[in-house]
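so my prof wants the structure for this chain in the tokens format not the other one, which i didnt know existed until like an hour ago. anyway here's the sequence
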Amino acid sequence: MCAAGLSVSGAAFAADLAVPEAAIIETAPSPIDVAFGVKFTSEYVFRGIQQADKGPAVQGYAEVQAFDWIYAGVWASSVKFPQGYGFSDPAAEIDVYGGLRHTWDAITLDVGGLYYWYPGEANLAFVGGVPVKPAHIDYWEIYAKPSYAFGDLGSIGATVFWTADFVNSGADATYASVVGKLNVPYEIYPDVGLYVSGEFGKQWAGKTDAGFNLPNYLTWNAGFGITYKAITVDFRYSDSDLSARECGGFSGVRTWCGDRYMVGVSFDTALSKLK
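here's what i got, hopefully its the right format
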């Protein structure tokens, strides 16, 4: 008790002791939390390249966070790779990931690894009416994502991803980018927020097992969003400097790498926020 508390009378002190212990002791927050969310997007673009044949996609994730250091999760999205171009036409993309993430004041460091799994890949595809056996594209990456936050104003960061077997082709690949987000300091309505954000990146890739050199290319996206409590509506533009010929050689479809405009609606929360 503080010095002032020592001066109370015996009766008052006895009354204090009569207060149930649960009423005067705060419960420590749990060291483990679970974050989760769902999203509907008009198009799914990954590093400047279409993943759902210019159509909509449904996505979702769940992530376990422990002791403000360790995390592991799974993220999934619907995809559409037409077999007419020799794709294996998986039922979905499922990313399993995990690593270490911690924040020191304004600085956050995130390092880890993930595995891109495409379940339901076909064992037979047709190109020009001729049956072929498509290459399955499951692969892994490791990454580092440092960032710096400017209070409630926004943040700036970088990402680096590397793999020795990009889309199971045998080619090594590195993707690096700069990302930024600016929160608009203007409250138009309680619990409503506005932001602008963007990313500028480059991918370097090597030679595949089949002897093809994958193209190095630049990609970028920019957009703005509106948040209301756990709901976000995001409007985004994405593009790359891949030519139609390079896009066809890289993704199999010449029109999958151009400029795209999309809108997404997402819901994100955590168990700790629901209590």
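also thought this was worth mentioning. Residues 1-19 have pLDDT under 50 and may be disordered.
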